[in-house]
Design goal:
Elements lengths: L18 H4 L2 H11 L2 H4 L4 H15 L3
Length: 63
């Protein structure tokens, strides 16, 4: 099955009925993680990931 968009490590965001789950850190960052490009997600090390994500956010104007 070919991927149309995004990366292969996307996480599923389930419906949250309780506030304790809705406002948890892990639930809130899923959209950000899923919107990252493949070259950032598939970094070879933690250091490379930090460098790549900084570059991505700098180019997007988020920092």
């Amino acid at each position: 099955m070919p991927r149309v968009r995004g990366h292969c490590k996307k996480l599923v965001k389930y419906f949250a009925r309780l506030d304790i789950w809705k406002f948890s850190f892990s639930h809130q960052v899923l959209n950000e993680w899923n919107s990252l490009p493949e070259w950032v997600v598939n970094s070879t090390s933690v250091h490379c990931f930090k460098v790549n994500i900084d570059e991505f956010f700098r180019n997007c104007g988020r920092i």
